[in-house]
Amino acid sequence: MNMSGRVFKKNFFVSLISGMGSIIFTVAIVIIIFFSLRQTEYSSRAEGVRILEESIMRVAIHSFAVEGHFPESIAYIEENYNIFIDRTRFVVHYDVFAANLLPDIRVFELHR
Length: 112
Fold this sequence. Notes:
mainly alpha
């Protein structure tokens, strides 16, 4: 009787530990997936900023080549070159020092 009691307790603890192992493994996988998705979202946001900044830069250089001067404002770029800036998502810094010098162009993402 003592022997069967120990076997029962030993099997109970073995099954409990093996059950905990699968739960821990599942939780670890969920955590890895969560952090991977967050990293993907961060990369996507950074890529959006980079693409918008490069688009504005290309338009400014194109404008200089065609018109002989850089655009005087970001509004001019939006109106004449079909660049759409989502103002709920981005802030664009466009600073022109002189008509013949490349403007300072920076794009920042608004945090929600």
